[in-house]
Amino acid sequence: MSAHPSEWTLRRLHAGEIPGPERQRLQAHVSSCAECHEVMKGLEANQVRFEEEVPFGRFAAGVEAVQAAARRAWDSAGGKGQAMSTLGVEAHWFLLRKP
Prior knowledge:
Blueprint: H1 7-14, H2 20-32, H3 34-53, H4 56-76, H5 82-96
Helix pairs in contact: 1-3, 2-3, 4-5
């Protein structure tokens, strides 16, 4: 791999979304590239902070609340695009509010 992967690609790698050979190539690059290694360390630190700020129980409850809101919005919108807007607003509100 001659060029650095994008931050988005590194985020996907961190999340386990990159399959097989591509994942192995990226992991090899990150192991040998100080710059990409630092980006991955930052992503890991962000994940730890998120998990400390939003405990799993609260996160799971938020997912359930957003799913319920999405079902209500979908039903009331007759299955139209408005449901997705409502879902986005509900998810944003729940995850950013302080308990």
